[in-house]
Amino acid sequence: MRIKVHLFARLCDIVGSNEIERDVPIGTTVRMLWDNLIADFAGLEAYGESLSSAVNAEYARMDVVLNDGDEVAFLPPVSGGQSAT
């Protein structure tokens, strides 16, 4: 199956792109896809515990099984901004 992966913020810095495509076997879950990415981009490992994911623009748990042509987004935690005074 072919999956399009969207990466945001620091994740795309680590991978070198904000969008990549991966070929994965039938039955692959979001977690398995993430683990597949970590195998190629070790710097991603630090984000696994606080990561949000979405499948086809809908937030999704890591145990969701993917289908051919799905688009998966991985979003790291966001912090910062200006505090009110």
Summarize the SSE layout with pairings:
Layout (H helix, E strand, L loop, with lengths): L1 E6 L2 H6 L3 E5 L6 H11 L11 E4 L2 E2 L11 E5 L10
Parallel strand pairs: 1-5
Antiparallel strand pairs: 1-2, 3-4, 3-5
Give the key terms.
single chain; 85 residues; alpha+beta; Ubiquitin-like (UB roll); five-stranded mixed β-sheet; 2 helices; 20% helix; 26% strand; globular
Largest sheet: 5 strands, mixed
Tell me the series of helices and strands, N- to C-terminal.
Answer: EHEHEEE
Query: What is the average of the pLDDT values?
Result: 93
Strand order, sheet with most strands:
2-1-5-3-4
Fourth-level CATH superfamily? Beta-grasp domain
Distance between the termini: 51 Å
At a glance:
By secondary structure, this protein is α+β, with helices and mostly antiparallel strands.
How does this structure look, described?
The protein is α+β, with helices and mostly antiparallel strands and 85 residues long. The protein has one domain: Ubiquitin-like (UB roll) (Roll). Helices cover 20% and strands 26% of the residues. It has a 5-stranded mixed β-sheet. The chain is globular, with a radius of gyration of 13 Å.
